[in-house]
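Sample A.
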Amino acid sequence: MSSSWHQLDDQRENWLLFSMGAEREEESAIGWWELVVGNATQLIRSHASKVSVDAQNESELLTSLFEKLERYRDQEPLLITPSRTTLKRLRARLVEVTTQQLLSLRGFRHLCLDEQLERQFGHGLSDRGLTADSDGPLPPETDYGDLTLSASTTQLWDVWTSIYALLPLRGIRGERL
């Protein structure tokens, strides 16, 4: 039996689907984030945070995100974002927002879902009626098994799980951050 990181294993937490947005479209500050943790066989857990509900400001919001991410660091999990812009915006906000500690994405691998769809299938998220960049309020919640996720994150997870087995292995490894 292979011990390869990508084999089916319902205990492994190797996929992290991340989405975020601002409360209002014209804002650059991150107002909410959602992180879904899973693997090839199941969705294991989800985390979400929102300014004015779970955090007082953007700095606290980012700190709470990195507290959740820390659990998975160094296992080289795949951080899946809807677009490259999501990752760029997160990095830009980390530079802008003063925090007490250095927050890093090292120890993760990254995969852009929209890019993989374009490269491997010739169409992107917009062709599926989804937006690659989410702004505005956190979308309404939907039940997804035992978890409650935003409707857009549920759709992104469904897209990912429908295509990952069709991607070349180098495609699902992502790039080191």
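Sample B.
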Amino acid sequence: MGCQETYKERPSYRMLDYKLPKKEIIYQSDLNISVKEPRTIQHFNQLKDKARKGDVYSHYLLYLIYFDDSNCSVKKRVPDENCLLAINYLNNSIELQPDFEPALYHLAILNKVGIGMDVNLENSIRYYQKVIDLNGRYRGDAIGSLVDIYLYNKGHIDNRVSKAKFYIDMGAKEDSFQCLLYQKDWLSVVNRMNYLHQLK
């Protein structure tokens, strides 16, 4: 599946010391139950073997581990090998389970920011919308991200103002503090948005 490496590798000390972020633990109880962060080379290769057999959680955990040990977090830098492997594992997790919410959410971020790939707002918006439609733990974060895209991202976006208002209203109905503030002071938000886009 994909262009995974075919040899038994020696992971870095950083990879064997990787700890799931608090948000991943809170949002994904299934992940923490299904797979554990590897602490030895043997456990690391067992995790990779499990991924080769088609386990979506193993692919996703390997994405997180490789991402953490790569230059993926640096925008506009040529991605290193670990960054490309991380993205490959992320894509594989979606291929195995197309509605796998955390992977869709992370792929939306990578497309939005342009990490390991060119910026693609159209894809980012599409993935965030899929997350919203799934109505899971990442829904609120996806709504907030779409609000940010429509309000502040560079480039031409059709019906930017009406789409920003749509997602602000959606977030406000779900008690998003930021969306409630935007909704309360909507005219000022529009004026600020128009001013910022005139500067770009």
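B remarks: Residues 81-96 form the longest helix (16 residues). The radius of gyration is 19 Å.
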